[in-house]
């Protein structure tokens, strides 16, 4: 009888000791986490509010130079979100803070000589040529000017870009003679960071005043990077209008002297894209007995780059029209980083009429982009009223029903 009692007492003491040890370990971990500064990889500052957004995986991290940086990266939390809510007033609004950067009125008071001297010391002739080598047509269009700050924080190994404002943008809305501009920025050539500003309504001189901070970029790597700004106008009912772009190679730009104010003329978007849209191979078969149209999207080749940075992620959207009214739509899967994509996907459409006279089919090749609206790379229309190979292909499937006929077609601008 004594042995079971002794065993029970020791078991109770062991259980209490285990629970106490577990609680102590949890408290130590909690206190150590609270003392650490969250090593954010990306910071977006907007009007005095610090936002630490997005789920950043290992693919979106710039490589460090030494092993110590890699070890610190492995210990970083994947997700982090912080809003400075303690500074709100009684109504829940954030108080207006005095920005550290100069206002638009201060920018106007700065003489052109000040800009010229600062640029002359920090910008290489090659980077100036990239934006100054505009054709006569581009100069006549005058798409506006973009103002932004560049800075490098050596203590935190952070690259800071402040999109200040844009002036003299063209009106993209013909009715109101204004625009709803916003800016998308990408760091090239990796395309690992894609950010964008908020949309400012009905203005041709938007003052964004938004700061984007990228951590973990060694200063030695800055010279190999290029900033790509895309200026767009938001359209609620269709695709956003592209106003223009600004491309800034950072080679030769000296950021060790402090914050650098730059201005660049906005130019037309990548003229090289209009030279060719690529080709699409499709196969069609009309079944007159079942009144169905079988469409096979086979391949695409020679697709252009989505932007100046790299390859596109294409997929094909297929729309069926009856008397110019869309009655059905399908789409293929996305093919990552492939200018010569192989789809091999079959779709069957029910035809609401006895023949194909009022039927047409549209192929839209799009570039998949998670950060914004998908961009149309090129389009193709097949039908009785289509011109070129589109009309010839349609005529063949009408003359030879129940036969699968495949053809290559040149894509046109979307």
TrEMBL record:
GO molecular function annotation: calcium ion binding; calcium-dependent phospholipid binding; clathrin binding; phosphatidylserine binding; SNARE binding
The main location is: membrane
InterPro entries for the chain: C2_dom, C2_domain_sf, Synaptotagmin
**What Gene3D superfamilies does this protein map onto?**
C2 domain (2.60.40.150)
Question: What are the alphabetically sorted keywords of the record?
Answer: Calcium, Cytoplasmic vesicle, Membrane, Metal-binding, Phosphoprotein, Repeat, Transmembrane, Transmembrane helix
The record ties this protein, via Pfam families, to: C2 (PF00168)
List GO terms (cellular component aspect).
Answer: axon; cytoplasmic vesicle membrane; exocytic vesicle; plasma membrane; presynapse
The listed locations are: Cytoplasmic vesicle membrane; Endomembrane system
- Identify its membrane topology class: Single-pass membrane protein
Ranges of Polar residues composition bias in the record: 94-108
- The residue ranges flagged as biased composition, category Basic and acidic residues, are 62-73, 81-90, 114-123
Membrane-spanning regions, if any? 6-27
A GO term (biological process) for this protein? Answer: calcium ion-regulated exocytosis of neurotransmitter
* Low complexity bias (residue ranges): 124-135
Q: Do you know which CDD domains this protein is assigned to? A: C2A_Synaptotagmin-4-11, C2B_Synaptotagmin-4
Q: Where is this region: Disordered?
A: 61-138
Q: Which residues form the C2 domain?
A: 142-263, 276-409
> Can you tell me which family this protein belongs to?
Belongs to the synaptotagmin family.
The name of this protein is SYT4 protein
The gene behind this protein is: Syt4
């Amino acid at each position: 009888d004594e042995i079971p009692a002794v065993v029970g007492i020791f078991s109770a003491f062991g259980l209490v000791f285990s629970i106490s040890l577990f609680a102590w370990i949890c408290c130590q971990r909690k206190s150590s986490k609270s003392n650490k500064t969250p090593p954010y990889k990306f910071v977006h500052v907007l009007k005095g509010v610090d936002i630490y957004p997005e789920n950043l995986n290992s693919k979106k991290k710039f490589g460090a130079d030494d092993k110590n940086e890699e070890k610190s990266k492995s210990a970083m939390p994947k997700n982090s979100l912080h809003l400075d809510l303690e500074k709100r007033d009684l109504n829940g609004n954030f108080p207006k803070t005095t920005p550290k950067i100069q206002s638009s009125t201060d920018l106007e008071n700065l003489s052109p000589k000040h800009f010229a001297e600062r640029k002359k010391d920090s910008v290489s002739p090659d980077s100036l040529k990239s934006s100054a080598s505009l054709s006569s047509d581009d100069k006549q269009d005058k798409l506006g000017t973009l103002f932004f700050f560049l800075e490098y924080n050596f203590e935190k190994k952070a690259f800071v870009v402040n999109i200040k404002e844009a002036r003299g943008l063209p009106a993209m809305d013909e009715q109101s003679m204004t625009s709803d501009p916003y800016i998308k920025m990408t760091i090239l050539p990796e395309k690992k960071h894609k950010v964008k500003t908020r949309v400012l309504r009905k203005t041709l001189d938007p003052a964004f005043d938004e700061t984007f901070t990228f951590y973990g970029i060694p200063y030695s790597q800055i010279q190999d990077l290029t900033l790509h700004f895309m200026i767009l106008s938001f359209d609620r009912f269709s695709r956003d209008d592209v106003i223009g772009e600004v491309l800034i190679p950072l080679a030769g730009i000296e950021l060790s002297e402090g914050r650098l104010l730059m201005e660049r003329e906005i130019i037309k978007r990548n003229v090289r894209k209009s030279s060719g849209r690529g080709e699409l191979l499709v196969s069609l078969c009309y079944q007159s007995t079942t009144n169905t149209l079988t469409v096979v999207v086979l391949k695409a080749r020679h697709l252009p780059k989505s932007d100046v940075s790299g390859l596109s992620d294409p997929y094909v959207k297929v729309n069926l029209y009856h008397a110019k009214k869309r009655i059905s739509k399908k789409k293929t899967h996305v093919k990552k980083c492939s200018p010569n994509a192989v789809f091999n996907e079959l779709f069957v459409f029910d035809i609401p009429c006895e023949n194909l006279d009022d039927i047409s089919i549209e192929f839209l090749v799009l570039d998949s982009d998670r950060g914004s609206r998908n961009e149309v790379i090129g389009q193709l229309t097949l039908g009785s009223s289509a011109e070129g190979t589109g009309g010839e292909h349609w005529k063949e499937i009408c003359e030879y029903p129940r036969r699968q006929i495949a053809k290559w077609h040149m894509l046109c601008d979307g």
